[in-house]
Amino acid sequence: MTTLAERISRGEAGAVAEAEERLRGAISADEAHNLRKRLVQHYTQAAGARRDGGVNHLERDLEAALGHMRLLHADSPDHPGYTFRLATLLTETGRFDEGLALLEALKAAGGSFDVEVNVLGAIARALYSQGAFEQAVPVLEGLLDMTLGRFGTDPSREQARLVGSLLARLARIRINLGDCELAVRTIEACPFAVEHDFLGRTLARAETLLRDGPPSVRGDARTVDLDRLTVGCVKHGTKYGSDYVNRLYSMVRRHLPGDWRFVCYTDDPKGLRPEVGVVDISGLQVRGWWAKLALFDPRVPLADETVFYLDLDTVVVGDLDFIGGLKVGFHILEHPDSPCFNSSVMLFDRSFAAPVSQRIRRDDLQRLIGDQDWIEECMPGLDTFPKGLVRLFRGLHPDLDAEELAKTDTRIVTFPTNPKPHMIGGGWVAEHWR
């Protein structure tokens, strides 16, 4: 007979909800333990590459996973695997102090080479996500010394990928700290060749910035004029309703001065408020986040040459006038968790950014997971927004109130996974998402 835990693992419809309901009743400790383990796996699984192009919401729910993991850890506080998983979930949900304290305790306890690498790697990722780059550097350098000393010059494919991910993070920090030359040397010092997407793009980024500088230093870089600006979003398919567009318009209107225009690229304009202009993309032959490519198509008529783009699952929590006077070019968000770009927020000159649309080929859509991979591959030497102004929801401590959030200098919060803004019933999200 198939157990409920096995049904969750197989992805059977309704199994997760049934398990959550069962856990609220009277069941044995062993059954509760097994169900919680399966639910943590379900809520944290990446489910492989997003080949749906972001058409559907990710099912990951780190808050739900954390709730079950806390209970598993409370039942078995001396289980190092549970302690490690709890620590990583804490840091992935913005509870950095609590998570790093557990990781430091695991580090002090010692263990095998693999355990030490995993713990130090989790510490480095947490510091990277915090933006604590100076603290992350010695951890990453120590990890590289350990792994290179252990793996030698002929590592396995898995070992080489681990080294590649460490090198990509360390080199990305060098770039973010303004030392592209050191970033290149860091990668080139590796004693063996590494095939790793993040590493290859990071090396291209460092070399491009060294050769050309960022777009903002070009003599023809356009200064952002808030009276000659289009604010854009994309709604394609059924993932988001018109309420997401209308609320985004309202938030931008409250927080961005100037006589700018708001445009939605969409295949279905029903329900949009009259202030929202429409660009028809119903004939677009791509889905999900690949629909963003329409933003860069120079054939689309817009009143302005400068575009400020925001994902629909965005909450504006502070003044956006920091973009006024920036020189573009092309600004994009540096991903706070991974050594790559994040295209949730972009500011670009249409003529400069046109190659993103012009150079794309059908096989690129199949080869790459998403638009931000293509943007970095196509144009690696872009400017990034000032650190800390744009945050991912999962990287903010969830117990922050509106006043505490304002002290962080955060202006924009994006919600790439669950929960989405409409799932949160109170606090600063409800206060701003209107």
UniProtKB/TrEMBL annotation:
Coiled-coil spans in chain: none
Record InterPro entries: Nucleotide-diphossugar_trans, TPR-like_helical_dom_sf
- Which Gene3D superfamilies has this protein been placed in? Spore Coat Polysaccharide Biosynthesis Protein SpsA, Chain A (3.90.550.10), Tetratricopeptide repeat domain (1.25.40.10)
Q: What is this protein called?
A: Tetratricopeptide repeat protein
